Each structure stands twice: as structure tokens, then as C-alpha cells.
Amino acid sequence: MSLVALTDVVKTFDGVRAVDGVSFDIDRGEVVGFLGPNGAGKTTTMRLLTQYLEADSGSIVIDGQALGDHPAEFRRRIGYLPETNPLYTDMLAGEYITFMGRLRGMSTDEITRRTDDVVAQTAIEDVYYRPIDELSKGYRQRVGLAQAILSEPEILILDEPTEGLDPNQRVEIRSLITQLGEDRTVLLSTHVMQEVRRTCSRVVIINRGEIVADGEVDELVDASRGGSRVTVELEGRAEDVRGALESLESVRRVNGEESPAGRARFSLIGDGDPRREIYDLAVGRNWPLWELHMERASLEDLFRKLTVERDETATADPTALDPAPIDDNATDEMEGEVEG
Prior knowledge:
Layout: E1 4-13, E2 16-26, E3 31-35, H1 42-49, E4 57-62, E5 65-66, H2 71-77, E6 78-81, H3 93-103, H4 108-122, H5 137-149, E7 155-159, H6 167-180, E8 185-189, H7 193-199, E9 202-207, E10 210-216, H8 217-224, E11 228-235, H9 238-246, E12 251-256, E13 263-270, H10 275-285, E14 289-295, H11 299-316
Parallel strand pairs: 3-8, 3-9, 6-7, 7-8
Antiparallel strand pairs: 1-2, 1-4, 4-5, 9-10, 11-13, 11-14, 12-13
Helix pairs in contact: 3-4, 4-5, 8-11
């Protein structure tokens, strides 16, 4: 049985369905990336899970029990770091952690015991006695994570935990999330694709309130490509090399690139993995092989296909929403951080 299960969950604001029939499960010990552009329904779904909002219809079940039937119990079993970290900046970091423990109904002994652990885990010893308004954004996020794990929650829900951090701070928080995910179930919302690749075993993508993808990261990414993309550089006349490559059964299309003198460099689309056939061709024609590698499909490709391209297709033809292969001519110009 899944630890968390959402079934046909709907939440409407002023007649607009922010969450439209969302269904997905999370098993114990999973670290799941929850992706989607701005306004897709990520934060609303997280607020429904943490009981900040109540669903209009559908069910949310935690460990076999309806979320609304045991509100106090589940608040302790779920740790939550919202996108806007709700810190009381006039408090010392340590005071804030104690205060949050009391709000959760923890005893003084529990708070004392757990505080030592979470302070060490989040590495905030140096700022424990400092006012929160004097802390850097990175330390503020650490304090937010400390309060989120204080009650030893089974489930940790993190909404954009590295938003606004510099690259060094992102690495630190990402490492901390990976550590926390070793003994917890984590739902992580982020726009930073590297974080998903490095911390999540599975990804759920939401767009316009609907789940459009759910599965293991590598499987979804590999399936998003209509074929493999290979770069090859051979020593030979460009016309001869192109013709020979185009004649291979495993090669679907050949695109030329700038080449050093006396060499021919091409980017081609193939079915499966055409590298062995290309290698045999080079050996058979006595063409020295300078480069041969296959590019992996990217998570950015998948994200764009299921959000931007899907929306463009829907706008042009509302009936044409079936998944289509990514344009093989498209270059991967997206940065690691997707705006959305």
C-alpha cells in the first residue's frame, strides 16, 4: 500500500480548476520530483496535502487513512517547507525552532531531544543564537528545513527549497535534501532540473492542473525522444561521408555541421543506437574516426514537450493533445533552470 495516495483531487478558485482530477501515489522511501510551470497547480496540490487547503472533491489518503479524518496526527507526520519560508525574523533561530515544536504539540523533552539532532543535520550551529533577520538566505532555508523535520515526520514536502539561493547554497541544500531523503518520503517541487536528476528517483509533471507524466526519471526522459541523437566526425570528403551515413538502415536523418579541414562532422538522428553501424562503416571505408558519441535526452526536453509544446498544440488544435515526438531539429537551448 502506498504511503500517500491522491485520487481525482479537484480544487477550484473562482470557477478555475487549479487542480483538475489529480491522481498519483507515493511509496515509502521515495524521493519524488514534482514539476510544472507557474500556475500549473504544484503549490495548490502541496497545500492540499498539508491541509492548508481542503479539496473540493476526490480523496487524499495517508497510510490508508483519509487525511481529513486525523488532521492533528497527520500534521505531525508531514513536514512542510513552503515556497515562501514563513520565518519570524525577530526571533533567534533557536527560539523559532522551539516555537514551531510547541505549535506541533511536542513536549519540552521532545523539543530538547530533537533540537540537537536537527541543528546538527541542517548545520545551523553557528547561527542558532542569532536573530533570523541577520541570516543569509541559505541559512534561512536551513532553519526552515530544521523546523520541517523537528517532529520526525515520515513525509517531507518541499516547495522550491533552493529558490533565490546562489550556486554554492544550492549545492549545500541539495546535499541536505539527499541526506534527508535517506529515511523519509520526500515530495520536492523545483524548477531546477539538475536537482531532480541528482535527488529524485521519480518525477511527476503537472500542467494546467492535470498530471501529464509520472514515472522514473530516466525512463520518461528516454521515452520522450523519437530517436537517438549522435555526433560523428570522420576524416573524408563531406559529400561521401554524408551519403554513406544516409544509406545506413539505423540512420534516419543527417544534419551537417562545421568541420575542420579534411574532416566531415555531422549530427544525425538514428533509431536505437546506430554507433556500431557507424563504426563499422568508418572501418570499412578506411575513414579515421575522430569523434562518435550519443547524446542523452534531457529532462528539459521532456518538460518542454509536456508543458510548452503541449499548450501550443492545444491552442492551435484543441483536439490534438496526443503526445508527439520532440522535434529532432530542435537544439537544447534551455538552461538547467526552467522558468515556470
